[in-house]
Amino acid sequence: MATLLKNDRFLKALLRQDVDVTPVWMMRQAGRYLPEYRELRSKAGNFMNLCQNSELACEVTLQPLCRFDLDAAILFSDILTIPDAMGLGLYFETGEGPKFRKPVRTEADIDAIPVTNAEKDLPYVLDAVSLIRKELNGDVPLIGFSGSPWTVATYMVEGGSSKDFATIKSLMMNSPELMHLLLEKVSLSVIDYLNAQIRAGAQAVQIFDTWGGALSPHCYKEFSLAYMEKIVAGLIRENEGRQVPIIVFTKNGGLWLETIANCGADCVGLDWTINIADARRRIGDKVSLQGNMDPSVLYAKPEKIRAEVGMILEQFGSGAGHVFNLGHGIHQHVDPEHAKVFIDAVHELSAKYH
Amino acid sequence: MATLLKNDRFLKALLRQDVDVTPVWMMRQAGRYLPEYRELRSKAGNFMNLCQNSELACEVTLQPLCRFDLDAAILFSDILTIPDAMGLGLYFETGEGPKFRKPVRTEADIDAIPVTNAEKDLPYVLDAVSLIRKELNGDVPLIGFSGSPWTVATYMVEGGSSKDFATIKSLMMNSPELMHLLLEKVSLSVIDYLNAQIRAGAQAVQIFDTWGGALSPHCYKEFSLAYMEKIVAGLIRENEGRQVPIIVFTKNGGLWLETIANCGADCVGLDWTINIADARRRIGDKVSLQGNMDPSVLYAKPEKIRAEVGMILEQFGSGAGHVFNLGHGIHQHVDPEHAKVFIDAVHELSAKYH
Q1: What is the pLDDT of residues A113-172, one digit of tens each?
Q2: Do A166 and B299 touch (CB under 8 A)?
Q3: Longest Cα pair distance anywhere in chain B, in angstroms?
Q4: Closest chain A C-alpha to B278 CA, distance in angstroms
Q5: B339 half-sphere exposure, CB direction, 13 A CA radius
Q6: What is the ipTM of this complex?
Q7: How far, in Å, CA of A52 to CA of B198, rounded?
Q8: Hey, how many other C-beta atoms are within 10 angstroms of the C-beta on B47?
Q9: Are the C-beta atoms of A50 and A43 separated by less than 8 Å?
Q10: B169 shares contact with chain A (CB less than 8 Å)
Q11: Which of A27, A99, B197, B206 has the fewest Cβ atoms within 10 angstroms?
């Protein structure tokens, strides 16, 4: 029997089932735009200390739910926990984003990295998931997540963030077999990791493919989408008597929606560069859609935020299969009051479409 | 009567007229990947000294043509010459890209900036155009260019490069009338600037909309495309007895090709995230297409470069209306020999499609 959930709108909408109002959450909803997050992070010393301490990770996960009427919680963690567990030495330099002490570039490097085992290598993540589920007490579902193999690999090979992905694209083009070996190891690690999150209590999972959109169409299929397909095929699809929906989100993937919608996931995430009416026409009979307001709209005045929410709801139109979200993570300089206006507007303005 | 051109493939292909082989040039073909460029720039002291000295700008423009069998030259300059001439104080910090000493953010700032007059405010650009034309001696056509108003405005408002365009998007959403006033002034300046380049000898012009793709579809139309349309409508379309084709290139604009193709330009530039066969099917009966190999392919081995060129030619298929290019500027760490392989491959492998 399914465990009780006081609010299951999010899970229902992911599976294109009827709901009373459109559910909403925000990518990076637990994060730097919240003063209570900044306070906790400053106490913790750094970002990884927050991730690796299950009680702190739980507290951070729940912070936005205390403020806003969100329809889902998302595990507070990072897409680079897996390569960190592989021994690459993740660290964060102020203002420069994530870096690795030991980037992976040669055949020997790739041979040497292990496939991770979450129970053994990433227990802090699983402990956080269990603790968050306990603290949520059935209020809303908890989303687990991982980076896509391609996206995670960009950081592993480049050694950090990159503008044009010169190193990994060179590897991809000059040694595709090595690139595939690396992506294979990351994929196996991701499957194990997401399944462990599901067993620990994640009720839906999202794969973040932040950098798939930097590839040409045929490289996207071969080096990013193929591995997300493999992951989706390897995931636990039912737990606690309930289906575990899978969301795949490729930023800048709007041109490739049809192929993405065929990867086996239940829901496709959209960034803000596509009109969601077009997306629904193209793939809405196959999967649900998540998105897609430009996060920058949260810099606007409340009436403008409401107008944009109304426009996107109108574009999607009537019926099931829409989870409202931003088209990317919430920006750090957004006023939390504007996030509240956004979330309330989704619930208030969407009732008439259901 | 049209002035003589020894090679007019590029102009013909832009107008969808028959050619013997597919013409090719590279965005940023005069630039840092060439050792002779780095030498000249180091002598000049900095980038703006190179742009502002017509003889040096001419020399840099011609450098890639000495090495490669290119079908067009492009004026060596920068998309930020106009705001520099408006008095914003352009400078370049090593490794950080362009910056402005006086960014434009308030109503007073926007009121204060002038519409520029190229003959008076940017004579160094026009002198460079005349000189390059003279030195080219009819070998290949010369392309003039400008940034799109939206793209230029992002730098003016942000004060430099930006990741999420928080400042300009706030301005756009909270004070759209001010945003329009700024874009209007930039547009009028661009029309004057491109027409002056045409009168000085530019035989085709390209509008670079590098950051239009950061907008949502409706904001793209209102704040970027509308101003490119206005510019296209204001340009000299015939000079020296020959049509002056206009290319519009919005990076990450693949979802909006139909509306872009309606802006009045002769050619639409494509980045590498779209399959050019799809682009041709969508808009190829209306405009010519320019693109679209991922610049990172030039990191690959010669045989791989040739294979990618062959694939894109095959995707476009037979007939007129294709100018081969990279999907964005050539990267600075590319081996010039690989650029040569690329250019020669386009000519060699394309003959059978004409």
Answers
A1: 999 999 999 999 999 999 999 999 999 999 999 999 999 999 999 999 998 999 999 999
A2: yes
A3: 59
A4: 10
A5: 28
A6: 0.95
A7: 61
A8: 15
A9: no
A10: yes
A11: A99
